[in-house]
């Protein structure tokens, strides 16, 4: 049979897309449709599974099979779908509350079992659908209707959670970076086993600017490290910053390329190195860049 070209339009349903104006989910939906077209699996062989929350609308907006399940339970439903028909391309979509709070138990087990599904963790560090309660990934001090004095809980780091649960593939991207997001979804789908892609998303209503300049296309170069396997960890609009690896401390340290330190001194990204992937996951401080790209892949 002749191959039929698939476009993002083939994955566009007849449902009106309804999120708040300016929501980062619009960009994510666009990027995922683009990725699905590039992957080329026919829509009738694709399944999207979701739980509850803003992100859970995805199955309505993707022209494929889909399940809108209950809060936190998308992962076990997706497991059943994949086990019943291993030929299907199964995607699971959830927010930081859906995946890491009520669904944290299920996310842990689907990762350790390495079920061949693709999980999209849409992280805006807030509960949006329920009007702005702080979530498991909200920074300390986050004020919300349920925490007027500010959250006092230490936030969950999605990368550390995934790697600690035994994930064989973890990547991170940003809603606004349309030159990056689709590629991460394509890489995740190509991985045989559980793949988790964390997508940093902006909730313009309840947690605007949660990730600062990381999500601003014109500024992100100075605040994110775009990881490429086998390449130096250099970043900055002027390529004047980078990461070196401190063997003694077992962590990455941001440096400025000022002549004393040059690009040749920088660490090279090895996406198959679990120890260094964990060290990259630790980069979540205010004075540290955010790594995006494939942080860990157990296989080539």
Verbal overview:
- There is one protein chain.
- By secondary structure, the chain is α/β, with parallel strands linked by helices.
- It folds into 2 domains: 8-221, Rossmann fold (3-Layer(aba) Sandwich); 225-297, no CATH class.
- The protein has 8 helices and 11 strands.
- It has helices at residues 25-39, 58-61, 74-84, 96-102, 104-113, 158-164, 181-190, 274-281, and strands at 46-50, 65-68, 89-95, 118-123, 169-174, 195-200, 224-226, 234-235, 241-246, 251-256, 290-297.
- The protein has an 8-stranded mixed β-sheet with strand order 2-1-3-4-6-5-11-7, with helices on both faces. The chain has a 3-stranded antiparallel β-sheet with strand order 8-9-10, with helices on one face.
- α1 packs across α7 (181-190), α4 (96-102) crosses α5 (104-113) and α6 (158-164) runs antiparallel to α8.
- The chain starts with 24 loop residues before the first helix and ends with a strand.
Task: Give a concise summary.
This protein is of the alpha/beta class and 300 residues long.
Q: Can you tag this structure with a few keywords?
A:
alpha/beta, Rossmann fold, 2 domains, eight-stranded mixed sheet, three-stranded antiparallel sheet, 8 helices, 24% helix
